[in-house]
């Protein structure tokens, strides 16, 4: 199948030099020289692959060559589309964050009862934390323990993640308060922050214990604050 190239045609000026004004002519021909490559991948698909590799190996242990091999794209495409390794990592984290927020929102708001909603969410969190997969734990929590403190770009991302999750938990708690599911006058902002801390704590503690009952008791104790 013939490839198409653009050849620049410029009429000569009186001086005999090429004029700066020009037109572009499209000629059908086999391209005799380099043509710009068209992307053959979806950015979201590549980020999902990056998540799986970074989640398994961590940021520092993953080389650019491993990324090129795992993602199935060349170095030029990687740098042109995502920037350097750190920029790719942050974009992978951000995609994970967005998908995670959407998933958790669905879990919570599928339950009219606030306590049942949080119980369902934390049961899933426990299952993930206690799993024996190679990518054990939460990608974001794992990354924060590896990279913080000392990296401003990462610090900014993790702060944004914290704010987004606390805002989601607060929104759900305020729904319960408005519906009279628990008494008014509670500090829901502080409770939302506590729930976020519990969520992340479970992911960390789940690496060193398999006592699901003890971890779930922490959830019940926290939710008792709604009574």
Automatic annotation (TrEMBL):
<dbReference type="Pfam" id="PF00440">
    <property type="entry name" value="TetR_N"/>
</dbReference>
<keyword id="KW-0238">DNA-binding</keyword>
<dbReference type="InterPro" id="IPR009057">
    <property type="entry name" value="Homeodomain-like_sf"/>
</dbReference>
<protein>
    <recommendedName>
        <fullName>HTH tetR-type domain-containing protein</fullName>
    </recommendedName>
</protein>
<keyword id="KW-0804">Transcription</keyword>
<keyword id="KW-0805">Transcription regulation</keyword>
<dbReference type="InterPro" id="IPR001647">
    <property type="entry name" value="HTH_TetR"/>
</dbReference>
<dbReference type="GO" id="GO:0003677">
    <property type="term" value="F:DNA binding"/>
</dbReference>
<feature type="domain" description="HTH tetR-type">
    <location>
        <begin position="40"/>
        <end position="100"/>
    </location>
</feature>
<feature type="DNA-binding region" description="H-T-H motif">
    <location>
        <begin position="63"/>
        <end position="82"/>
    </location>
</feature>
<dbReference type="InterPro" id="IPR036271">
    <property type="entry name" value="Tet_transcr_reg_TetR-rel_C_sf"/>
</dbReference>
């Amino acid at each position: 199948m013939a490839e198409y190239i653009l050849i620049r045609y410029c009429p000569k000026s009186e001086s005999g030099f090429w004029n700066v004004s020009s037109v572009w002519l499209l000629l059908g021909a086999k391209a005799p020289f380099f043509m710009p490559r068209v992307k053959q991948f979806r950015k979201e698909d590549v980020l999902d692959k990056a998540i799986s590799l970074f989640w398994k190996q961590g940021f520092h242990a993953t080389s650019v060559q491993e990324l090129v091999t795992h993602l199935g794209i060349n170095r030029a495409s990687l740098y042109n589309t995502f920037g350097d390794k750190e920029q790719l990592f942050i974009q992978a984290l951000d995609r994970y964050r967005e998908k995670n927020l959407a998933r958790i929102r669905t879990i919570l708001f599928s339950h009219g009862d606030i306590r049942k909603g949080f119980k369902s969410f934390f049961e899933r969190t426990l299952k993930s934390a206690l799993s024996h997969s190679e990518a054990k734990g939460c990608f974001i929590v794992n990354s924060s323990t590896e990279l913080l403190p000392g990296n401003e770009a990462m610090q900014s991302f993790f702060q944004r993640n914290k704010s987004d999750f606390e805002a989601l938990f607060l929104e759900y708690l305020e729904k319960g308060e408005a519906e009279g599911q628990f008494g008014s006058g509670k500090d829901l902002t502080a409770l939302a922050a506590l729930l976020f801390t519990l969520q992340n704590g479970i992911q960390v503690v789940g690496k060193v214990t398999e006592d699901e009952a003890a971890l779930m008791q922490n959830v019940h104790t926290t939710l008792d604050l709604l009574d």
